[in-house]
User: Which sequence fits this backbone?
């Protein structure tokens, strides 16, 4: 299997402007397709019900709806001695941060046979190091020490510093869509509408030759 870099822009100037694409041979593609079709039968039993992406019969749009409801509830909540805040976690290269030894042990604990585990590990395993779990643990421990009925700017900045995130009273996007739905719903989704229109218009310029 070879890996090539495809430019994301017309004039890429750094490595972040390239997208790595794997060029697999025919045998690899056939074997991986067979594995996927076999695994699809038990996917729903292996993936937690809170995970909606890449699972047949589930829609990631449901997570967007849940996010809308949570943010709306936080915005509308008034009074009380305690407040609420939403924390958006953007996993950078989430799939590259999987520890392959952990994946192998999970498959073994789920009851997959050794031959199956060997096939999966042959497809995905590579050398990698990860410190994300330790980092998240330290964040939770420090966060547990922070409390306050009314979160003022000082405490808010302290939370942001500990978690290493920016403070935003109105998060703009979640899963590619606007996170807040305002009263003017047409104006909120006009960008999505225009994107769909541009996509449809592009179809008319692509003709299929039957010659």
Assistant:
């Amino acid at each position: 299997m070879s890996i090539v870099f495809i430019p994301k822009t017309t004039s890429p100037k750094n490595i972040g402007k390239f997208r790595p694409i794997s060029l697999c041979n025919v045998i690899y593609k056939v074997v991986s397709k067979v594995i996927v079709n076999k695994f699809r039968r038990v996917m729903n039993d292996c993936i937690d019900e809170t995970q909606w992406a890449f699972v047949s019969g589930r829609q990631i749009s449901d997570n967007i709806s849940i996010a809308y409801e949570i943010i709306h509830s936080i915005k509308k909540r008034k009074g009380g001695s305690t407040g609420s805040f939403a924390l958006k976690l953007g996993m950078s290269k989430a799939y590259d941060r999987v520890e392959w030894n952990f994946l192998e042990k999970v498959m073994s604990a789920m009851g997959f046979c050794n031959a199956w585990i060997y096939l999966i590990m042959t497809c995905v395993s590579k050398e990698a190091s990860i410190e994300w779990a330790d980092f998240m643990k330290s964040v939770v421990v420090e966060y547990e020490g922070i409390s306050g009925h009314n979160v003022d700017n000082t405490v808010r900045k302290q939370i942001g510093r500990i978690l290493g995130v920016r403070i935003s009273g109105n998060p703009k996007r979640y899963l590619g869509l606007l996170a807040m739905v305002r009263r003017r719903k047409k104006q909120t989704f006009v960008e999505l509408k225009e994107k769909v229109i541009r996509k449809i218009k592009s179809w008319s310029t692509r003709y299929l030759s039957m010659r």
